[in-house]
Design goal:
Length: about 650
């Protein structure tokens, strides 16, 4: 690997921007015994060994990188990945002591499934406690989601029975005695009703459209629907299409364009929901992701990875939650660590047009000095950012993610993604799996990932000058974002490298859609909140029932969504509050065509007397609060009458939109 020193800047891992030569036509896999010989491995750097492995005819690339999926790329294009690995090892920054991974005790099947049940908010199935939230969650599951929960709970109970630890409830006591605990074989191929988002005819049309799209993959723009559960949609598709391997020519690696199908409820971003509702979205997303992989007969095993205990102070090696806790003492609305935002700003100032910006390594001595100063002075606002250049900022940005106690993305899911890509499904299916994984991320990880992808979008927008394409960014950042401290063979590491780079590539390509919450998950959250309210609501006494019956006498509830004892607002009229504007309240009559932007326009018209008021209303959004949703920022294109019928008890407030 050539290294040039130019003015204190070390240029590493740079290769020609021209298209690399195609790989040999029929490579064969190397025997693992050769990879285990210590004499030959120590003498050859990892980068060169993997490069030789990619180009040698006696070795083979992973199956999915040849012709089975659009992840296929020229073998030489992965050199950036291995050179980044070698650069990490050779150019050790030396600013922190080597952290010893905590010994992870291997878990059996029952313990893994118990951890999964806790992660999805169903710990009550293990403890046996009665909790409204757990009951409400179970009542909203689709058939495939319920099947996934049954499978994990059955494994957990069978393991406990073998150990003779304690008596456990049968799965039929939870899901009903008439339901079979088997997974997907018992699910009939009928349209979906349970998610409340699709009618039988629409579901059948969606499946038919999917089959047509399978025949003509390279379309200009493929429409995606978020209305129907991904796992339910897979079970409706014929197996020949679900498991069909799609062959792609090498030159067809350009990712297709997707367009999200608009609905009358509009599209909802993750930041548009309240923290309580997003917690439920995470639980449902993990259940749905598990059911999704079950449809492909792929086990989403969360095997324990080696963990490193994070630091309690400083910047590098500190968990994201600790960094955010410290930053919120300065700004309560912070969602992305402030030091990371500073790194973004420094690169954007003068580095977006710098050729090979993330391949460059700054002066090692300066980087080490800046790291020490950041750890000591950043939280006290005493670090002088003007002396740092974009090269050092880019190096420390990569080190920031690499030294997190746990990787930004769940590396334990990579084996399942490898198997999925080896099956060679359409990129749409890979996107759906990635979409659910993003929705299941903790808030800190998801918000940070969103800010990172937005930043990389600015980098790739200057590709003609900095020579950093989407694939270049993906291969360089993959070892920093999907790092694993476990030992792997060369063949296994090659699979991990290709998959991690391809996942980041998908995130960069489809980042505008990845942070949109699927409509079927929002519908489940609404039903979950309604079920929780019903379970918590105390039973009325006989006197109250008789009194209510007297009041209701002669009143037809089908004519009005608001009973007279609940509200004096007529049907189809909402009262919108805007506490930060001059016009603080307004009653608005809805019709079938009233959208969120129409209500904002009415307030803008009423508050248009001053320029400051005009500026203020432009930064406001309409929120739906209460009832069967915690807080929901409405899409300006959403039809308010539809939302009104779904949530008649909601309050309507205009206030500034929350931002990541």
């Amino acid at each position: 690997m050539e290294v040039e020193d130019s003015g204190g800047v070390v240029l590493t891992a740079y290769h020609s921007y021209a298209r690399p030569p195609p790989p040999s036509p029929e490579p064969r896999c190397a025997p693992r015994a050769t990879a285990s010989l210590p004499g030959s491995r120590k003498s050859i750097p990892r980068c060169r060994r993997i490069t030789r492995m990619l180009s040698n005819e006696s070795l083979q690339s992973p199956a999915f990188s040849r012709s089975n999926s659009q992840a296929s790329v020229d073998s030489a294009s992965m050199e950036d990945f291995w050179r980044e690995i070698e650069s990490i090892k050779e150019n050790s920054l030396g600013a922190r002591e080597e952290q010893t991974p905590a010994e992870a005790k291997p878990l059996d099947e029952g313990e893994l499934e118990a951890e999964w049940l806790q992660d999805v908010g169903l710990s009550t199935l293990i403890s046996g406690d009665e909790e409204e939230d757990g009951k409400a969650l179970l009542s909203t599951l689709t058939r495939t989601q319920a099947a996934a929960v049954k499978k994990r709970y059955n494994t957990y109970t069978q393991t406990l029975r073998k150990k003779n630890k304690q008596s456990v409830r049968d799965v039929r006591d939870i899901f009903g005695a008439n339901e079979s605990p088997s997974i997907l074989e018992a699910i009939p191929d009928v349209p979906v009703h349970s998610n409340g988002a699709a009618d039988p005819g629409q579901s059948a049309r969606n499946v038919a459209n999917d089959e047509d799209l399978e025949k003509n993959i390279l379309v200009e723009a493929e429409e995606l629907s978020f209305e129907v559960s991904y796992s339910e949609k897979l079970t409706q598709a014929p197996k020949r299409n679900r498991f069909k391997k799609l062959d792609f020519k090498k030159e067809d690696y350009v990712l297709p364009k997707f367009v999200v199908q608009k609905t009358r409820f509009g599209l909802t971003k993750a930041e548009d929901l309240s923290a309580e509702d997003m917690k439920k979205i995470r639980h449902l997303s993990l259940i749905e992701l598990t059911a999704f992989f079950d449809a492909f007969r792929i086990q989403l095993k969360r095997n324990k990875t080696e963990k490193v205990k994070g630091r309690d102070s400083g910047i590098f090696g500190v968990p994201l939650t600790v960094l955010l806790e410290n930053d919120r003492r300065k700004d309560s609305g912070v969602k992305v660590p402030l030091v990371l935002q500073k790194f973004f700003e420094k690169v954007e100032e003068s580095g977006l047009e710098s050729e090979g910006i993330f391949r460059l390594s700054g002066c090692t001595a300066k980087v080490k000095q800046y790291r020490e100063e950041l750890d000591a002075k950043f939280n006290a606002d005493k670090f002088k950012w003007e002396k740092m250049c974009h090269r050092e900022a880019a190096v420390m940005l990569k080190a920031f993610f690499r030294e997190l106690p746990t990787s930004l993305f769940p590396v334990e899911y990579i084996p399942a993604f490898i198997t999925l890509m080896e099956r060679g499904p359409h990129i749409r299916v890979q996107f759906q799996a990635l979409h659910l994984m993003v929705m299941a991320l903790p808030d800190a990880n998801r918000d940070t990932a969103q800010a990172l992808m937005t930043f990389f979008n600015k980098v790739t927008a200057n590709e003609s000058k900095n020579r950093m394409s989407i694939w270049n960014i993906s291969t360089i950042m993959a070892p920093n974002l999907f790092f694993s401290r476990s030992k792997h063979s060369d063949c296994e590491e090659l699979l991990l490298a290709n998959t991690a780079a391809h996942i980041i590539r998908l995130m960069l390509k489809y980042q505008e859609m990845l942070w949109t919450v699927p409509s079927f998950l929002i519908a489940q959250v609404r039903r979950m909140n309604e079920a929780t309210m019903l379970l918590k609501k105390p039973l009325p006494s006989v006197k109250k029932l008789l009194r209510r019956k007297t009041i209701e006498r002669g009143f037809d509830q089908t004519c009005c969504l608001f009973p007279p004892w609940q509200s004096d607002v007529p049907e189809g009229v909402i009262r919108v509050h805007a506490p930060l504007l001059s016009k603080v309240s307004m009653a608005i009559q809805l019709n079938g065509q009233t959208k969120g932007r129409d209500i904002l326009a009415k307030f803008q018209c009423e508050n248009s007397h001053g320029s400051s008021e005009c500026m203020k209303i432009q930064n406001q959004r309409l929120y739906e609060i209460g009832g069967n949703i915690g807080q929901h920022c409405l899409d300006p294109d959403a039809y308010i009458l539809d939302v009104y019928h779904v949530n008649p008890q909601a309050e309507w407030v205009i206030k500034p939109q929350q931002s990541v």
